[in-house]
């Protein structure tokens, strides 16, 4: 009888704890990231059944929807965003630095020192600040449809019989050949993304902003030629124009067999593995082409706690954020579900997927080659604000709505307007 009463008492206490618990709302972007976050939430609830979650995953137009929610007063408790928007949302977030030692048992310095430098640059504006925790690291790369490349007899770097990356001229010829041999409507998918465009420009030796955050794109004599080469990919139907002028899904085009190459990155691992299992198709990551240099730019998702004014919710949100933002805890759960690269140096994750053992070194080579200048020019509010105007202006050239000269003039005007609104370069 006594044991039954003890069990009953425990259940009553547990039930009361749940009733007195809190509900946290999370906004996230990206379908695969949303699924990985759901996996982490499920694991966290095993440890903390008193915490409820409402997870809102937004796959399109998330920047505008996040902004409206934050400004309207109907803000979520936590947000998961891509790193280019770190500064854009930072002012809405709680500094987590004072809570690291309490919840993780290590100092802030130890926590930050465990991250890759390219990750560390986004989580706080100063060494004493922590407005975000890292979820995962990404790096840009190519993906190739192995079946199409084998049919065309084209080796690819580094897993398909070629050691070195293609030169830009070789790469364009590869696109033409793989398209022709496989009778495809286009050769390569290229997301409507300023980050992807940035990587293309960077490997071809062109900068958008310099280290002083001055716009140099319209002053570089090489830039117009390099941008014209990019536009010509669409004109020659090597890249599907609707991917840039109508936001047609680059992922669906590639995975659906419409194209043979995808300029994307490591974040595609989960989707690729799933398609390989479902269809028997074969895919592999490959090096980006080289011109002046070759490397993949860094990216990823970060996680922040919104300042809502509800102290109990803020406290629980902080605990969850630090749990999912730490290796060996929720971060491993998240990245195992996503097949994401750990944001922590030297930290290995047992994905349970053999292909990842081959793929991870490809991504590591690309990120290790990245020059240091690509980080500071993309960790500022100026870049976050310039992100949409840049891709919009180039898309208008692809859609024959203007020429490159007009696009560069309009980008300059957008830059000057943003500078005025910000009151300087930041």
UniProtKB/TrEMBL annotation:
The lineage's top-level taxon is Bacteria
Q: Which PANTHER family match?
A: ARABINOSE-BINDING PROTEIN-RELATED, SUGAR BINDING SECRETED PROTEIN
- Protein name per UniProt: Extracellular solute-binding protein, family 1
Species annotation:
Thermotoga petrophila (strain ATCC BAA-488 / DSM 13995 / JCM 10881 / RKU-1)
